[in-house]
UniProtKB/TrEMBL annotation, chains A, B:
<keyword id="KW-0808">Transferase</keyword>
<dbReference type="InterPro" id="IPR004567">
    <property type="entry name" value="Type_II_PanK"/>
</dbReference>
<keyword id="KW-0418">Kinase</keyword>
<dbReference type="GO" id="GO:0004594">
    <property type="term" value="F:pantothenate kinase activity"/>
</dbReference>
<feature type="region of interest" description="Disordered">
    <location>
        <begin position="297"/>
        <end position="324"/>
    </location>
</feature>
<dbReference type="GO" id="GO:0005524">
    <property type="term" value="F:ATP binding"/>
</dbReference>
<feature type="compositionally biased region" description="Polar residues">
    <location>
        <begin position="75"/>
        <end position="84"/>
    </location>
</feature>
<dbReference type="Pfam" id="PF03630">
    <property type="entry name" value="Fumble"/>
</dbReference>
<keyword id="KW-0173">Coenzyme A biosynthesis</keyword>
<feature type="compositionally biased region" description="Basic and acidic residues">
    <location>
        <begin position="298"/>
        <end position="308"/>
    </location>
</feature>
<feature type="region of interest" description="Disordered">
    <location>
        <begin position="75"/>
        <end position="143"/>
    </location>
</feature>
<feature type="region of interest" description="Disordered">
    <location>
        <begin position="531"/>
        <end position="556"/>
    </location>
</feature>
<keyword id="KW-0067">ATP-binding</keyword>
<dbReference type="InterPro" id="IPR043129">
    <property type="entry name" value="ATPase_NBD"/>
</dbReference>
<feature type="compositionally biased region" description="Pro residues">
    <location>
        <begin position="314"/>
        <end position="324"/>
    </location>
</feature>
<dbReference type="GO" id="GO:0005829">
    <property type="term" value="C:cytosol"/>
</dbReference>
<feature type="region of interest" description="Disordered">
    <location>
        <begin position="160"/>
        <end position="187"/>
    </location>
</feature>
């Protein structure tokens, strides 16, 4: 996440193929708002042949991704008592009861716990309570199970590959994978129950909480699978990325007593995006129509149906004291909007901000960054407000009016500065009203300060992102990182900044698992060993084209 | 100073020619550190044919520029008692005694008050005490003096024009103007005593202080010149620019009872730069050699003499917790570095930041801006520190260590992130160390907070400036505005940011009267009436080429 940086080429990552079958993938209903951005993802047609845990340790937060078995599709009724996976003793379930407010951990299969997802749901924007420690969920599948398991596992992974090809042969046929599958190989067993991709988050400061969580996960998995802890540890691998992967490498090895593999941060970011973008209802953005409506009360001058909107820059809504209501549009899982998403610009907003250019072939370069990121907002607001954590800060900002502290164009000119097209509501100087000789500090409300700072940082990131996207001719900008937290004001400000500066020619895209791109990428990297030639050809059509090639664009 | 803005064309300003003779111009020695950036400029060969005062009222500060007569060159001994200008009654002097600490007003001719300027003087970087109210200095020359004066004045202005042409006919001959002058027209009278360009600054909040200052100046000038206040008011004109020119237009007219003319902000900025850059020892920058030395302890791999330095980006010094010692290089008055300075990018940092692209012909466009400017630093530091004013905040920052609050690359990686060329001292996240659950707020020092915020804002402005300079292919970036205040850490950070991002291909330039560009431009605009044809031709070679043309580049 470093800020100022040169623009060197990054060492070329190895060719990667995603053979995780996303057919029928679903983001599970949340059992708690705290899991807003860390809901589990149910993968009905994937099982993991070897256990591993992926972690992405940033400057402020450590993100965890791991896969646990599931024995029922998310949209069916919960398991009957005693019912269990073929790999589990009847007495044990990989699912623990939902924990309504004491965790940011991932998923629950209890369908009745919450309403089902709606493509235009505002769920991603629910307020969230203070973050507490993630709670363990599910158990890993060790690579030391019975021969019986191995067979099924291997046939499963060939099933996975056949599914993968099916997916590509029938883009848009996510809902009826079996057609493809059985056409490909009737000899395969019926689909395995699949499982859940779990997400958890910790403060890097509390690294011991992370370690404890991982130890418990490993211990629990050993118990659930009735293997010794030693066997489990031998078979579990930790894929670590982010700066902390280097900082805490020795500590992790010593405390977990498992293999720890370090992966390059930027490469994992790109891989993570490539995978997660294939999950339905993961990618979303503000609709052009909304932006247009906001700047047009009447509709007479709307363009004909189907025509691209070209909104005059002067009519684009600007970040203002009171941003309009927002509305999300999810990428259509059946449209090419969903996969591939390259070329694009990825702006990862953690403690600091990294800006990465991704070409169509998946090759990438960290081209820019800024030190004004989440850490800046969190740090300053922890000095300026009583908020105890980021979620409280966001709640504060929602109740504030930045015009009480920001100097607007109208405050300087007494009106618009129409000569250069600036509206009187445009922010001329963030916190520009605060500096008053002898003015009492307590005369400024925490809420207003929080909102002003959120705008200032979001606007600035959007501005720098736009300049880089323009420089490299990219019209799609993905915003990731835990700074966003699915927060409406943040997303609207970033979206407006991109639209405003690009005069409506660029789109700002967001992700529901925005903070986990790096961790997901690290997890993907270990999903399967280096591919054997015949598998490559067999599956060549079956995976995201942008990940089917190496970063030089050489197809296999 | 507005922040986010579209990029429209700005209405074309009228053709302008500068006939103010800068021959022998000198920046007077300061009588107080408070005048660091507002020292008077002695113009031995210019007198003002008509009185006017220029003001630039921004969101936080109002800047004043006005010309008063002088009856002695700056570098001679002080006047004998009773000695006076031919236009003054013997009993009166236009100079008031130096005021050592109670003002930011401009100039004194008392040579012995301070050491004479040295091209490598650090004077511009002296600490300055809290700003207090400017003190009135000198008297205006009304357009209502005797016929005798009028004659001398008009012959003076023709002398001015002839000097102007001389200057250009002998670029680099600033030191011996008479040669040119007498060759041109032996009939002209010996040089007139000239006078002083005065600078003063007020907080926009205290607009009444500004009005009182202007009232006193007008009253005093009436008394000194023995004309009635009514006559003086009829003959004095106020040229107003900046947002406050609109906001306070009616107030100014009512309170001053003089004509108030509004001038466009961006146009004045460009005109002001075009004029001030012609003053010796006004423009300065960090030497390439210094930057190079900083990143090379040994000198073996220096390029041959005369060859342009191309410093590898990875070896460019970065903004770091402890920037190296700085050193200024003044533009050589005899070099083309001095005039013209176009094309260039002008980054004016006031409460907010305006970024203006200037073409070779002087045409310009406000292409960008950011709301993270001086107002942001002043506002946040007034909330976070006990500093009462900006100078105290700068003093605080000089005693601080930002690494106590900033998250550096080394804090995240435990080392350099060499894979993408980031040193461990690079700031990854401004204030990234502050956010600690339950950490006591008082555990952070005001000095460290001040330094961190100064770096954060300066880095960001430098970054955005670089991106715009690169976009428009400009290699010279002028930083103006009262944010800079000749402050070493600010100038070094801005310079490093430009060098770092541009890989040493761009130069950051600074000005000693950085905060007064707009006010100087407004003053210049009224220096003489619209030019008559013959004067144009007569002086066509005599002034800055960039100001000899209209903004479309059509030469006259």
């Amino acid at each position: 996440m470093p800020a100022t940086s040169p623009m060197p080429d990054i060492s070329i990552p190895q060719a990667r193929r995603i053979v995780v079958d996303t057919t029928g993938a679903q983001i599970v209903q949340e059992e708690s708002p705290a899991t807003r951005d860390s809901r589990g993802i149910y993968l009905p047609h994937y099982i993991e042949p070897v256990s591993h845990i992926a972690i992405d340790i940033g400057g402020s937060l450590a993100k965890v991704v791991y896969f646990t078995r599931s024995n029922l599709p998310i949209s069916t009724t919960p398991p009957q008592s005693g019912h269990s996976s073929p790999f589990l003793p009847p007495s044990e379930s990989v699912f623990i009861p939902p924990f309504s407010s004491n965790g940011t951990s991932s998923s629950s299969s209890r369908h009745h716990e919450s309403p089902s997802l709606n493509p235009h749901s505002h769920a991603p924007f629910d307020h969230s309570p203070p973050t507490r420690h993630p709670t363990l969920n599910g158990a890993l599948t060790p690579g030391v199970l019975s021969e019986d398991y191995r067979n099924q596992a291997s046939s499963a992974s060939s099933a996975v590959r056949s599914y993968a090809s099916t997916v590509s042969n029938h883009r848009g046929s996510f809902s009826k994978p079996h057609a493809g599958k059985y056409r490909r190989s009737d000899s395969l067993p019926p689909p395995l129950p699949g499982g859940l991709l779990n997400f958890a988050r910790f403060e890097t400061d509390n690294i011991n909480d992370l370690i404890k969580f991982l130890q418990d996960l490993i211990n629990r998995s050993a118990a659930v699978n009735r293997v010794s802890l030693e066997k489990m540890q031998k078979n579990v691998k930790v894929m670590a990325t982010g700066g902390g992967a280097h900082m805490y490498y020795d500590l992790l090895r010593k405390e977990l007593n498992v293999e720890v593999k370090r992966e390059e941060e930027m490469e994992c970011l790109i891989l993570g995006l490539g995978f997660i973008a294939r999950v339905p209802e993961e990618v979303f953005w503000f609709s052009e129509e909304l932006v247009y409506k906001v700047s047009h009360t009447n509709t007479k001058d709307r363009p004909p149906e189907g025509e691209k909107l070209t909104i005059p820059p002067s009519e684009l809504p600007r970040p203002s004291p009171t941003p309009p209501a927002y509305q999300v549009t999810f990428a259509d899982a059946n449209a090419t909007d969903n996969v591939p998403n390259f070329p694009c610009l990825i702006v990862n907003i953690g403690s600091g901000v990294s800006i990465v250019k991704v070409d169509e072939d998946g090759s990438f370069e960290r081209v820019s960054g800024t030190s004004l990121g989440g850490g800046t907002l969190w740090g300053l607001l922890s000095l300026l407000t009583d908020a105890e954590n980021f979620d409280e800060m966001l709640l504060l900002s929602e109740q504030g009016d930045n015009s009480a502290v920001d100097m607007l164009v109208g405050d300087i000119y007494g009106s618009d500065y129409s000569k250069i097209g600036l509206k009187s509501s445009t922010i001329a100087s963030s916190f520009g009203k605060v500096f008053r000789k002898g003015k009492a500090k307590k005369s400024f409300k925490q809420e207003d300060i929080a909102r002003s700072l959120l705008y200032a940082i979001s606007n600035n990131i959007g501005h720098v992102a736009y300049m880089n996207a323009a420089k490299y001719g990219l019209d799609k900008v993905f915003f990731g990182g835990c700074f966003i937290r699915g927060h409406a004001a943040t997303i609207s400000t970033l979206s407006y900044a991109i639209r405003f500066w690009s005069k409506g020619t660029m789109r700002a895209c967001f992700l529901r698992h925005e903070g986990f791109l790096g961790a997901i990428g690290a997890w993907i990297k270990n999903v399967e060993p280096e591919p054997e030639p015949e598998i490559q050809s067999e599956t060549s059509g079956g995976v995201d084209a942008s990940l089917q090639r190496d970063v030089n664009g050489k197809a296999h």
